[in-house]
Structure prediction request, 463 residues.
Amino acid sequence: MAASLIFGPIRLASAQSGPFQTVSQGLNAGRFIFYPSVSIDFINDSNVLYSSEDLPSSVDLGSGVLLVKPRVMMDLPIGQSRIRWAYTGYYRAYTTDVLPVPNERSHFFDFEALMQVGRALHLVIREHYVRGIQEVQEFDPGGEVIVSHRPFTTNEPSLQADLDIGARQSVSYVLGHSRVHYDVVADIAVQGYTRDSMEGRYNYRLSMTDTVYGFAAIEDNEQDRASFLFQDVDSRGKTLGVGGTRAFNQEVTTAARVGYQNLAFTGGSTGNFGGMVADINASLQLSETSNLSVTVGHAPYQSFFLDQPYYLNDQISVRFLHQIGSSVYWEIAGTFRNNAYPEGLDLSVRPDTPFTEDCDGDRIPDSSDCNNNDLIDGLERLFCVPQPGGPPECPSMGVKRNDRASLFEIGVGYRPRQRLGIFIGYNNDRRHSNIEQVSQGQFFDPFHYDVDRVFFRIEMGWR
Ligand SMILES: [Ca+2]
Ligand SMILES: [Ca+2]
Prediction:
């Protein structure tokens, strides 16, 4: 179709987040192929702090943002093997002066080596490194953690070995490690965590593109909570299930897996989790000019909220992209999330509650409950309003936290030349919870935010 010639065919949205994704030819330099590019966004953001707008003290939280994203990707094909690495920087400057870091820098580094060893063995070595400030979804895909504008580091090396044991059958071994760490933990609940995982698969190839597999996985998660009151909640998980992938040119376009997971926790006062988990990413080419991608997830994610061990996340995302003529396209996307916490909010003093308050002012902590009402004073100040001559009013006491969040995006792009594109977009990112905290004697939803962004983007280079 002639319409596709200038723009290139609409890319199949990769099911895996795509640091190596390309839409056009790169620059050849000997055996190397380079993709250098830069994009510049001019953004009007209504709430850069993700503050609750229910707060009585909430002020104007909006800001202009200039976001410059340089990217360079290098591809080195060596026979059947391939080495790629990519760097993307996020350089943000704000017009507001309320942020702790006025000019933010984030750095993403990805490495991937696909190696064919002999006829039957394929090795994949990956590294995903982020030095981030805003990009909390890198380590909290369910959306509990709010952007705090504090720097963190994530480091995720992994190794995958696939061994063919016949024309259609193979076995895989996947070893993963994640380490997440915040530099400074003042006024945030997360210090970091370390996770190790191991997975074995038996794969059966149905066709050139489609593979189904059965898997067994174990993982070990060790938390660092930045909490004086609550212990770290560590977990060990076991999962059994089945999955399938569809791939074109080594890029996975559809991946689905469903299983049963058991999580056993240590630390905190909680039972274990046992239940279904699912993760489905499908990209469908509806026509030569339109593409639909759908993501569905159901999984427990670790929590850093008070003493909660995890939250059960359900989410669905849909993205539709449509090309009009040779150089114009538009897209629309929506994500809906529900996060359910297993335990009711408990403010009461327990046998293991540490001394946190200095009741008599001699600078030595005495108790967590100076007013002797069996509620931890630090939490009582956050969640309760004192009532004259009676117990305080604590509307969230015993309530199981439940968050609902949505993300809506719409935009139109124009690509007058292969190496130049512009995009105008709008997105809205919002969340509500059923928890009420206190500020200046008034109750408000501390997990509420509602962020509107309008942006204009220029993209240049080899992408
Ligand atoms: Ca004291
Ligand atoms: Ca108390």
Notes: The mean pLDDT is 90. The radius of gyration is 25 Å. The domain at 4-107+207-218+227-346+398-461 is CATH 2.40.160 (Porin). The first strand starts at residue 27 and ends at 29.
